[in-house]
Amino acid sequence: MGQTVILGVIGSDAHVVGITILEQALTAAGFDVENLGVQTSKAEFVSAAETEDAGAVLVSSLYGHAEQDCRGLHERLADADCDAVTYIGGNLAVGQDDWAETESLFRELGFDRVFDAETDPESVVAALERDLDQRTTEPETDRVSVNS
Ligand code: B12
To answer: Does residue 119 line the site of ligand 1, with CB under 6 A?
Structure first.
């Protein structure tokens, strides 16, 4: 597993500002970022993660349809033998009233960390540095599950 970070906005979502800022912050922090842009399909995320031997897959969703768009993504990553850490962030549910419920839903879908729309780029960089460092220094059998 490498240190390449795959980044994109899933589904039909066209909100580009968040991932542009994240790409800049991650690149400045030394990560090799592959930005797939907006309106990215699950297949495109998986293909990029496989091709790049990605360390992390970062999924952005702002328009309120993240749950439908992300269902099945982790099964496809597993089928491709991809063990990248996965994050999702943005405006993940319409209204996003109950954050604990939203976070739990996306954790159940398989994401290692779930971030809300107030997330600043520095905290994403810090989380990735911790997670990727942990994964490269721990034995494969010792994978940890972490909370955001
Ligand atoms: C600008 C904007 C648009 C522009 C987008 C232009 C563009 N090409 O980017 C336009 C006008 C096109 C648009 C369209 C729509 N929009 Co709009 N839009 C916004 C708005 C005002 C700002 C978004 C933005 O750029 N924020 C600034 C960036 C820096 O912040 P951010 O995107 O949140 O990203 C940060 C964090 O969320 C986080 N983050 C984001 N992704 C990820 C991923 C990971 C892995 C991590 C760790 C962190 C992370 O880090 C980022 C940096 O700090 C928001 C309201 C708002 N204030 O957020 C609504 C908003 C997102 N839009 C909304 C809606 C409903 C729509 C439409 C469906 C409206 C419609 N009926 O047509 C369409 C969808 C079109 C489409 N196919 O995507 C809703 C979504 C509602 C929901 N989720 O419940 C919002 C919240 C407005 C609202 N209050 O109702 N929109």
So the answer is: yes
